[in-house]
């Protein structure tokens, strides 16, 4: 074992490093992104028992489940959006695994979101963060802390009004800045999707999806516990299931942090 890996295990064992779970539980109660009725909506997570130490299987317990690729805490691959459909290695099974791991840059806008659920992250706000914590490095995961995951009631979490959901996100220029000028791995959010709730009305619609995936970048949605991370210093591991041709996948996102 290399000295670096041995040191990592030693510091995890001694508690100088800790693992923070950034993943929400996946169950039939997991909130889903509501699309207009003319489009196919993702099915709710469903799980059923196959055997539990009984006549169906005397020594084992196991279940089967079904769900959409973009249910709960999940990974968005470039092929998920039309802008990324022709890129190479754009499905979850073809993305190089080293791209699942990167340093975390946590931008805390929870105070702004508490005042305005439709808050949008601007490039100016990103530069303010960089003035305080340093330039966002290439290959980073940029995580938008909004504390939205603390909304445990699914109705409050989706925040659906007569004109659609109202949740925070990014302006198109911020997505372009991060993807093209900072060359990040992608962005992670606490909301049900990586675009704002009202993003269907933006130009183009769902601009974070359009820009990020068109640039070969990724998305992490449905994160939690971002309040346990410092602005810098953590490493995020976000590895989706290796679904052949998959546009995304539920996943277990973890952070290694001091």
Write structural notes for this entry.
The protein has 258 residues and is an alpha/beta fold. Helices cover 20% and strands 26% of the residues. A 9-stranded mixed β-sheet has the order 1-15-13-5-7-11-12-4-14, with helices on one face. Strands 2-3 form a two-stranded antiparallel ribbon. Strand 8 (160-161) and strand 9 form a beta hairpin. Helix 5 packs parallel to helix 6 (207-214).
Keywords:
single chain; about 260 residues; nine-stranded mixed beta sheet; globular; two-stranded antiparallel ribbon; 15 strands; alpha/beta
Topology:
Blueprint: H1 3-14, E1 18-21, E2 46-54, E3 57-66, E4 74-76, E5 101-108, H2 110-115, E6 120-121, H3 123-133, E7 141-145, H4 154-158, E8 160-161, E9 164-165, E10 169-170, H5 172-181, E11 186-189, H6 207-214, E12 218-221, E13 235-238, E14 248-250, E15 253-257
Parallel strand pairs: 5-7, 6-10, 7-11, 11-12
Antiparallel strand pairs: 1-15, 2-3, 4-12, 4-14, 5-13, 8-9, 13-15
| Total helical segments | 6
Rg over CA atoms, rounded to whole Å, is 19 Å
Along the chain, the helix and strand elements come as: HEEEEEHEHEHEEEHEHEEEE
Q: Helix coverage percent of residues?
A: 10-25%
Structure classification = alpha/beta
Main beta sheet: 9 strands, mixed
Low-confidence stretches: none
What fraction strand? 25-35%
Offer a quick outline of the entry.
With 258 residues, the protein is α/β, with parallel strands linked by helices. It has helices at 3-14, 110-115, 123-133, 154-158, 172-181, 207-214, and strands at residues 18-21, 46-54, 57-66, 74-76, 101-108, 120-121, 141-145, 160-161, 164-165, 169-170, 186-189, 218-221, 235-238, 248-250, 253-257. It is built from six helices and 15 strands.
